[in-house]
Amino acid sequence: MTTEPTTGKPTTRELVTDRRDQYAFHDDIVYLHETKRGLTRETVEEISATKDEPAWMLQSRLRAYEHFLKRPMPMWTDGLDKIDFDKIIYYRKPSEREEKSWDDVPDQIKATFERLGIPEAERKFLAGVGAQYDSEVVYHSVKEELSKLGVVFMGTDQALKEYPEIFRKHYGTVVPHEDNKFSALNGAVWSGGSFVYVPKGVEVPLPLQAYFRINGENTGQFERTLIVVDEGAKVHYIEGCVSETELVSLGDSMVPVTSVAPGMLAMNSAGDLSQVVSTRRRTYQGDMLSIVPVSVGNAFEVTPEHPVWAIRRERVARPRTTRPVRNWDVDATKIPGTEPEWLPAGDLSKGDLLCFPVAQRTVDHPELSDDLLRFLGYYLAEGSAFENGVSGVPTVALSFHSGETELIDDARTLMTALAGKPAGVQVVPAKHEGRVYAYSRPLMELAQLFAGRGSAEKRLHPDLMELPPLRQRLLLDTYLAGDGSRHIRANGRTLVRSSTVSRTLAFQLQELWARQGIYAGLQVRKAFTETMADGRTITHREQYNLHFEEGRTVNQVWFDAPRNCFWVPVRQVEHRDYDGWVYNLEMASAPNAYLAKGFAVHNCTAPIYATDSLHVAVVEVVALPGSKVRYTTIQNWSNDVYNLVTKRAHAHERATVEWIDANTGSRKTVKFPSIYLRGEGASADIISVAVAGKGQHQDTGAKAIHLAKNTTSRIVSKSVSKDGGRATYRGQLKVSPGSTGVVASVRCDALMLDDASRSDTYPYIDIQEDDTTMTHEATVGKISADQIFYLMSRGLTENEAQNLVIQGFLEVFTKELPMEYAIEFNRLVKLEMEGSLG
Question: Are 743 and 712 in contact (CB under 8 A)?
């Protein structure tokens, strides 16, 4: 990411991202220390003692705790009464101390934040990075050249000990414990957060960035951030799937992931059908991995962080004493006792084993006779079903080599029985062809219904895919008789091959062979054009070739009966640059996984629990005279989080504070970034954006409090609600007596995408000084059908047209962001609007 230069612009930013699209995972962490559920005086004392805090901080915590108990729950917003404070764990310590070296962070926590991009971000563009995991900051780092200038960037707990004078001078002065019930809760149990101090006149040209992650179920995160920017100083603070061409298994066929919709059934890693709860889509630019197994036709593409069910090769390797161990040297007896792992695709290596589950669903269909199954095998290999273009006569024809008399006789008998009238045979000596045909509409319709028409469009009906394996073998045997070949290898084994130009049929046949206990390798011959000696040009379609040794699976593939899957080695991992849509599926039942080209990959959503988590933060910003601060939040918690935050800045003489705030996700957000203009000439600019989807209430807004002369403020609020979501704007503009020369504006715009959604606006304007210039505008509306029609007439889909209109509506926010953040925010909005996350 890059950002605009700091000249003339405040540059403090916060980017909070718990992005469901990319970072949807939960870690099984053994915490070094955690308090019991519920909040008591003993809990507060335990947290303070664990941190070895000075006596004044303990007393401050206890004062906040007493006020929290006395303060009633806010009644001006709904839903907060559902929070069960007794179920929350208020402190979880995941690591021993805050580290300055990334290498010293515990491996499991480090892996989590590497997936969030911290090391890469630090290398590329950040002046400093912080990371908080549940209750504790696990890492802070600031560039050496800034440290020499006196810039301090560390965890708030550490700052309490190392910079006690600065910390105590400013702590609680911007947001006192008594401000509200949740600021009191934070004051009682706060842990972690960031402390930033920038000395006079120092300009930090690159951002400081912090990432916050709630990992544990029923966990509360109560970080406390204190930013002090001294006179004339500047700082920038940031708080911080499969490709669109991929095929997934529906159990009876492989289909493009782009065609999967909620409510459909897809096969999971256990070989069972599971309902798709939601489809998720996001744009992605970066490294795309192609995981190529020994069956190269099953290669699948995923982003590096996408989990794949696998076994590390070294865990099941066969020891060799006379030569080096090869990638395929696996001791199959070790596989049943080795627990597979969900490994990020980027961690896979050559020789690692991938899980190819076998479908378990079996339903017999007695209406499908054995004769029909055997006929369909021939038809898939050699058949066509059509209405004659001249006479319109329904025709079914099977083509064999004229020397295959036994097959011709067998096919003629089957077709005669199924058509209810004699089938004919036509021999074409010039082509060495023997054609069996029947003029029968019922047989034509049966063939087309259960096996498709046209060589590239042939596929098996779902009823055929769930038949008992013994009955499926009837179809497979005649298919091989018509289209297969057998070759005796040097080792005496028989290599069986078959080919088709239907991609769907190839994967279905591979699944049927798997149900026979045989893993059939799949190779793909790309389409090509060939020029013949007589000048003719022949175009060859893409061809899919299946192969296996008769009576056994492909070499170097092992069946695991207890897990009902084949373990297939990785041949290689390929990389390519990618810029486009990526997709993910949320499955209804465990395991939350689906199959990409037959292999088990996991959903990548954020850790979402049936019970709720609580995020109660306090941020205090002190902008001393002449300083410039921008604080940007792009916040996207998972839908089980109550996000209740108090964020406030004090702008002193000639200071400029800009608060750029966006909210998506969470069950309930209550947040009103506030700027108190305490010195003459101070300036405030607040842009607040909220997107509320199903089950969400974004209760957000802004406050500008003018306490000095010649101050200016601008509040712009934009909200979008859909699928029954609710967006509420609450704003306060106050001009106190004596604050002459104030110029202020408030604008509130709401967009509702359906009749079930709701938008509320509660502006509070209190002007106590006549010498004030103030404007207020408010609009509520829906997307114009004319706009959508116009954009669709220019080639956009309805979703694309809607997204374009919404992005234009929110442009006042996105144009204030650096390009990378604007792109990220637009992606989040698109995903919310389409109900799909990547």
Answer: yes
